[in-house]
């Protein structure tokens, strides 16, 4: 469905893609809003804070794939890029993402769990 995802040859390329990050921003806010709607049992729209995503990237062990001098905003972009990439590669479904994100009220913990699962699936499937 998304033939361009085959152009990425490493996790580092995914994490540093500005284009994936832009798409990932909208996607992550969408799935986060879905998970909050599920938890609260009512429609809810929300944006994920960059500090949540950058903290989750670090906690999941993915920070090491990025250059050492990269700010927290770029780290959040990297998390967004990886999440949308995993969905486009059909490594994880929206349903699974919502389930993982809605397991805990703590956003950083929820996104850490999601990124850890995506990392596991990417490592298993490979590039």
Secondary structure category: mainly alpha
Radius of gyration: 13 Å
Give the class-level CATH name: Mainly Alpha
How many distinct beta strands? 0
Shape: globular
Q: Give the ordered list of helices and strands.
A: HHHHHH
Explain how this protein is built.
With 127 residues, this protein is mostly helical. 65% of the residues lie in helices and 0% in strands. It has six helices and no strands. The chain has helices spanning 11-15, 18-40, 50-59, 72-88, 94-101, 107-125. Helix 2 crosses helix 5 and helix 3 packs across helix 6 (107-125). The longest helix has 23 residues, at 18-40.
Q: Top keywords for this entry?
A:
127 residues; mainly alpha; Ribonuclease iii, N-terminal Endonuclease Domain, Chain A; 6 helices; 0% strand
List the helices and strands and how they pair.
Blueprint lengths: L10 H5 L2 H23 L9 H10 L12 H17 L5 H8 L5 H19 L2
Helix pairs in contact: 2-4, 2-5, 3-4, 3-6, 4-6
